[in-house]
Amino acid sequence: MNIQPPYLKRGDKIAIVCPAYKLKKSIAPAIALLETWGLQVIQGKSIHADHFQFAGDDELRTADFQRFLDDTAIKAILAARGGYGGIRIIDQLDFTGFHKNPKWIAGFSDTTALLSHIQAVFHTQSIHGQMPASFEAGTLLSLETLRKALFGEELCYTYTSTATNRPGKAEGVLIGGNLSMLVAMQGSVSEMDYADKLLFLEDVGEHEYAIDRMLRMLKRGGKLARLKGLIIGAFNEIEPQEIPFGQTPEELIMDIVREYDYPVCFNFPVGHIPDNHALIIGSTAVINVNDNEVTLSYQ
Fold first, then answer.
1. 276 located within any domain
2. Left (φ > 0), alpha (ψ -120 to 50) or beta: where does 198 sit?
3. Which residues share a beta bridge with 128?
4. Which one from 191, 202, 206, 250 is the annotated catalytic residue?
5. pLDDT tens track of the chain, all 299 residues?
6. Which of 44, 96, 209, 213 has its CA 20 to 30 A from that of 12?
7. Catalytic hit among 161, 272, 277, 283
């Protein structure tokens, strides 16, 4: 059974930190929005730190994250942005206080490393969703799904896929995130258990051959064989190559999982896109997949 942190309520304090790449713009608009939700926002030192490409050196980012993991008055920690760097601090963090007093940790992209770690080691739910640096570009609906996830309000997603899905209905614990980061977790204590799970995947800026290679690595490691279902989000910003790969991400994915019989849906609104819907990692969900229509709800 996965641990569900207490949902937020108006008046709660939350923290924003940068566990990876440094901020390049103000997140004041995002803070203002969070305050309209009735939250008190505390900014970590990493928000304004600058160390080459990082939001401060590893020591600063570790201490910043640790401060809010240990502070019981802080009810959620939002990663301000992704980039690269979370994997550099995971093993220096002490989650003892977090495990005793769990709280929501939210983000996506590089933050997948941290979300994967707390699911794998502490079996604690977390939120894959918009980050303060992406609030301005995000759709109102995507931001509303983040708010609902944090406050424990009902979430149910229905959308139409532009690609042909593999129909079916499945129930299972939801795991996933950024494909590159999930592959980077393989063989470590931070690797999630894929057996009997609903897996969602997204990535950005990767060529088709790299997507193919990473998915085949997961398949060869036995990660794709025992899934309950596969949810494919956005695989965007793929630059054309001089010699085409010959398959779209949707085509190569279906090729790789063709031998399995679980439902597969494409174009789920999750990833490096404005309409990045919040998904609760570690929660039990149900997907109902038709040729083009998809519904995801939580149990």
1. yes
2. beta
3. 107, 279
4. 202
5. 899 999 999 999 999 999 999 999 999 999 999 999 999 999 999 999 999 999 999 999 999 999 999 999 999 999 999 999 999 999 999 999 999 999 999 999 999 999 999 999 999 999 999 999 999 999 999 999 999 999 999 999 999 999 999 999 999 999 999 999 999 999 999 999 999 999 999 999 999 999 999 999 999 999 999 999 999 999 999 988 999 999 999 999 999 999 999 999 999 999 999 999 999 999 999 999 999 999 999 98
6. 96
7. 272
Range of the domain at 222: 156-298
> Around Cβ 84, how many Cβ atoms within 10 Å?
15
DSSP codes of every residue in 273-289: STT---EEETSEEEEEE
Pairing of strands 168-178, 156-160: unpaired
DSSP string, 118-164: HHHHH-B-EEE---GGGTTTS-HHHHHHHHHHHHT---EEEEE-SS-
Q: 108 and 25, same structural domain?
A: yes
Burial 126-161 (b: 16+ CB within 10 A, else e): bbbbbbbbbbeebeeebbbbbbebbeeeebebebeb
What is the Cα–Cα distance from 119 to 19, expressed in whole angstroms? 18
Q: Which pair of tokens denotes residue 289? A: 């997949």
Q: Is 46 one of the annotated active-site residues of the chain? A: no
Q: Quick check: pTM over 0.85?
A: yes
Residue ending a domain, choose from 136, 151, 166 = 151
202 is annotated as an active-site residue: yes
